[in-house]
Amino acid sequence: QYKHYKQFDIFENAVGRPSSSSFPKHLQRTPVVCPCQISQAIMSIFEYNGAAIIAMAGKECVAIGSDLRFGVQLQTMTTDCPKAYKIHDKLYIGLSGLGTDAQSFHQQLVFRHNMYKLREERNIKPTTFGHMVSSMLYEKRFGPYFTAPVIAGLEEDGTPYLCGMDSIGAMETAKDFMVQGTAPESLYGMCESMWRPDMEPEELFETLSQCLLSGVDRDALAGWGAMVHVITKDKVISRTLKGRMD
């Protein structure tokens, strides 16, 4: 039927506007909406609240940062909503996607970790935690949490551990950096340009901060400041960054 309208436009331009009685009612001019326009107007549920998360590895240290915006589609509701959560001193997880699902999933993770500590009498290792998160997401695959995790931690020997996955737990590890959020192209581009191996904690903080703030400048759904955590062998450094508020 869309082709009929196009043909009608060509005929109209060639011979002038015909009378309405010349055509059946279903071929008379009516507003046409292309299916591609409908699909562009529908926002993904993963973009509903907006997020930008980067995890980056250094020399015996690892950092994770997230933006602070919480919005409802294009309306900004608050600017004090970090998406990186502490599991223990050597392990953090960032949860992008739908804000309510991220909070619910974080509560489940805290419960699982507390039960692990009671049973094992030690903190969970980052690699073990990554597989646990993947398993928890996959068991809900037919009604998944609308969240995409990024895990950053330090192993017992000081080796950085970075891991990311989708909403049903398909894991991917990295030696350099991992990103999630509503503008992954911008974040990936900045990280690929600025990351280099064996960075010290302060240089790692500066690099991740610049990547995050520059990446969200091209994303209307994320930004409005950031929170960055740098995990080293003996301490965790947390800093709040000021960003563009527009």
UniProtKB/TrEMBL annotation:
Question: SUPFAM superfamilies given for it?
Answer: N-terminal nucleophile aminohydrolases (Ntn hydrolases) (SSF56235)
The record's annotation in Pfam families points to: Proteasome
| GO CC annotation, single | proteasome core complex, beta-subunit complex
Q: List keywords of the entry alphabetically.
A: Cytoplasm, Nucleus, Proteasome
| Coiled coil regions in record | none
Question: Where is it located?
Answer: Cytoplasm; Nucleus
Superkingdom field: Eukaryota
Tell me the GO BP annotations in alphabetical order. Answer: proteasome-mediated ubiquitin-dependent protein catabolic process
**Primary localisation category:** cytoplasm
Classification via InterPro entries: Ntn_hydrolases_N (IPR029055), Proteasome_beta_3 (IPR033811), Proteasome_bsu_CS (IPR016050), Proteasome_sua/b (IPR001353), Proteasome_suB-type (IPR023333)
The entry assigns this protein to a family as follows: Belongs to the peptidase T1B family.
Summarize the subunit comment: Component of the proteasome complex.
Provide the function of this protein.
Component of the proteasome, a multicatalytic proteinase complex which is characterized by its ability to cleave peptides with Arg, Phe, Tyr, Leu, and Glu adjacent to the leaving group at neutral or slightly basic pH. The proteasome has an ATP-dependent proteolytic activity.
This chain's protein is named: Proteasome subunit beta
Q: Which organism is it from?
A: Dunaliella tertiolecta (Green alga)
